[in-house]
Amino acid sequence: MLLLGGLGLGLTLLLMLAAPWGFEAVFGAPWRPAGELARALAPYIGLHFVASPLGVVTMAWGGQAWALKLALVGQVLFAGALALGLAWGGLVGAGWAVSGAMAAYFAYYFWRLLHWPIGQVAQPGSGQSSL
């Protein structure tokens, strides 16, 4: 997870620092707003970069039911943040809102994976899949 975190942090910093300028330099001035959106989504992109390959871990640990419940919570958070952000500040506002909401979601996900009771593999119907 540390290697992925380092790579994700580098990607996030690159987008945060250079996306508006980079989009404009490569695609022309009309693309600068897309760079602003990329900047707003940078924290989400970086965290998702780390989380995505870790999705198979819960399968190996027998935590599919837990992962499904958490994924559903994540979808609700994402959609809610998107709607609130669009109302608050257009596309860039939505990008920042999604990044903020999903940062909290991924923080919990990473914490839970780090504290997973590996010695206790969840059995079907055991009730060990709660969030």
Gist of the model:
By secondary structure, this protein is mostly helical. It is built from three helices and no strands.
Could you please describe the fold and organization of this structure?
With 131 residues, this protein is mostly helical. 81% of the residues lie in helices and 0% in strands. It contains 3 helices and no strands. Helix 1 (2-27) packs antiparallel against helix 2 (32-60) and helix 2 crosses helix 3. The chain starts with a helix and ends in a 17-residue tail after the last helix. 24% of the residues are buried.
Cα gyration radius (Å): 17 Å
Major sheet description: none
Distance between the termini: 21 Å
Helix content: over 70%
Shape category? globular
Q: Into which percentage range does the β-strand content fall? A: under 5%
SSE topology string: HHH
Oligomer: single chain
Tell how many strands the DSSP assignment holds: 0
Mean pLDDT: 91
Based on the model shown, name its key terms.
131 residues; mainly alpha; 81% helix; globular
Structural topology:
Layout: H1 2-27, H2 32-60, H3 64-114
